[in-house]
Structures are given as structure tokens and as C-alpha cells.
Write a sequence for this structure.
């Protein structure tokens, strides 16, 4: 029942935005009684933070598995950054975006979102560095891994108001080629 | 009076977010009568779209001037991307972000925001390519200019919930060095 509530919350966030999300709408969508919902998540903030955390971790784990299963070789970097780009253009990113933007002007929400964001950010960095086979002891490599994540975040934001998957693909292919050159430079 | 209303709208968007912005709050903040405000901007959507457009264009023009005035030479690329990064971490970006995210789930607002976003995006691209002295007839260079803008957008989004200006600077310096290498590669 908890998982059903969390999935329904993300669906409602994606469809209606943070302001349009209410605990009533979520219980209806999940087919869960108001009483049961309030028992698990007393407030809207509890519900949306738990939902974004749950889905981010589940989809992040799926992404990490998919990336780990990619074959080694010349096209690996392209495949990794393309998968990352698709992940940040998915509905889970839209739900997280709703939460981040609402937290910007809501101190109570920010207190819950900031540590979640830090944890998720560290995990995404660790996963990306491993997937790219990036040796972060080399000068500048750590910053390139960070830049890769900030780039897909920016592309994800752009994708929320225009469908630009062809543009995204061209940019990410080019960036993958640059990453390959940079990560092997002067070794 | 129009400019005062638009500046006040951006201030209220930054402080309270899209959901917390009302035409009443804006008229109070601007010291403009409700009647005069309604005469200029009949609806909240008219007001917020005009405000983000006005401020984006004004600050964009200021940025273009500042960038054009930078000296040529070895550190120019770093200076350009640092200025871009600061621009996308400013309150005007936060106001635009509020508008974009609200437009994602509001068709009427999206119809006004999508063409504005396209126009601003094209202008930002043109300005950035010129500032970097990027020759976009070379394969891959156009995509790197686009990636630079998506990167600063992603960094701007991150900066709305955590103050990470030192991290941003390190990433942008590294990015600038990569741009310099890539833009002169195999010429």
C-alpha cells in the first residue's frame, strides 16, 4: 500500500504539478482510504518527499544496473551518457523538479529536500564515475563527471517544455566523444 | 509604471514562487493601483510572461555587453563561461524557472511560454557562440555551444536549492579549458 501511494503521488505531481497535488487526489488515485494514507504520511510534504525519494532510488538503481550491463568498448561512453540523458528527461525527473522548485520558496520543505538532494547527488556521481570508468585522481576528471550530471540536468529541464530528444542526442554524442578524448588525455 | 510592475512581478516570483504570486501582491509591491495594473495586464499569466520576457531580455542584453567587453586572450573562455554561469544562478533565472515549471502543467501558460523560450534560447545561443568565437561550421562545435548553455542551465537549477558557487566555478573552469582544446582541435 505504501508503494502504491508513492507511485500515485509521483503520477499526480507529474500531471498537476506541486501546487495541484493534494493528499485527497493521491488517495483517490491510489485507491487507498484517507485514513490509511494519513497513517502512513500525515502531511502533503511527508508524502511528496517520500515519493520522490522512493522513485528516485528505484529508478536510479534500475539505471545503475542497465549501465553496468553495457558492453565495454568504443561506444560505451555514448551509451552511458545517452542513458543518463534519457533518465533525466523522464517523468521521475519532472516530479523531482516540482519538488525542488516548491522547496526553493518553502523552508519546511527545503529542510527535507536538501539532504535528500545531497544524498541522491552523491550517489549519482559515484554511479556515473564508475560507469564511465573515470579515474578521478587525474586533474579535472572529477569536474568532467560533475559537468556531465549538470549537463543532463539542464537538458532534462529543457525537455520539460519542449520535446527535443533529437537535439539532446546530438549534444550527448558530441559530449561523449569529448569525454573520451579528455579522460585519456596525457596518460 | 509598466517597468515597475514587471520588476515587482519578478521580485514576487522569486520570493514566493508561481503559486504564491498574485496580481494583488504585485500591485501592492509596485505601488500601482489595481485598476492601472489590470489595464496593463488583464491576467496573472499576462503579467508573469511579460515580466520574465522583459527581465530576461534586459539582463540578457547587459550580459551580452559585458561579455563583448572582455579582453581577448588566454583566459577569455573562462571569463565567458563564468559570466554565463553567474547569469543562470541569478534571481532572473529563478523567476524564469518558476514560469517554466508552472507552464509544464498549464496549457494556456505553455502557449505563451514556449515561443518566448524558443526566442530567448536562439538569442542566448547566438550570443554565446559569438562570445566564444566559436566557428560553428566545424563538426561538433555547434553542439558544444549548446552543451555549454545546457550545462549552465543545469548548474543554475542546482544553485536554487544549494549555494554551490565554488563547485560551479571549478566545473566551469574545467569546461572552459575543454572548450578551448576542442575548438582548436585539428584546425
Amino acid at each position: 500500500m505504501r508503494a502504491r501511494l508513492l507511485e500515485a503521488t509521483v503520477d499526480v505531481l507529474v500531471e498537476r504539478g506541486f501546487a495541484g497535488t493534494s493528499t485527497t487526489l493521491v488517495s483517490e488515485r491510489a485507491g487507498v482510504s484517507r485514513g490509511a494514507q494519513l497513517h502512513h504520511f500525515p502531511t502533503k510534504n511527508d508524502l511528496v518527499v517520500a515519493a520522490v525519494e522512493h522513485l528516485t532510488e528505484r529508478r536510479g538503481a534500475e539505471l545503475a544496473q542497465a549501465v553496468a550491463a553495457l558492453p565495454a568498448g568504443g561506444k560505451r561512453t555514448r551509451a552511458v551518457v545517452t542513458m543518463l540523458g534519457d533518465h533525466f528527461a523522464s517523468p521521475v525527473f519532472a516530479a523531482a523538479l516540482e519538488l525542488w522548485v516548491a522547496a526553493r520558496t518553502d523552508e519546511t520543505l527545503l529542510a527535507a529536500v536538501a539532504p535528500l538532494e545531497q544524498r541522491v547527488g552523491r550517489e549519482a556521481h559515484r554511479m556515473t564515475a564508475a560507469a564511465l570508468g573515470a579515474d578521478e585522481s587525474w586533474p579535472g576528471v572529477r569536474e568532467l563527471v560533475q559537468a556531465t550530471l549538470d549537463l543532463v540536468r539542464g537538458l532534462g529541464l529543457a525537455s520539460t517544455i519542449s520535446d527535443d530528444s533529437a537535439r539532446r542526442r546530438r549534444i550527448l554524442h558530441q559530449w561523449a566523444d569529448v569525454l573520451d578524448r579528455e579522460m585519456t588525455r596525457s596518460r
Q: What stands out?
A: The domain at 2-183 of chain B is CATH 1.10.357.10 (Tetracycline Repressor; domain 2). The mean pLDDT of chain B is 93. Chain B touches chain A through 49 residues (CB under 8 Å).
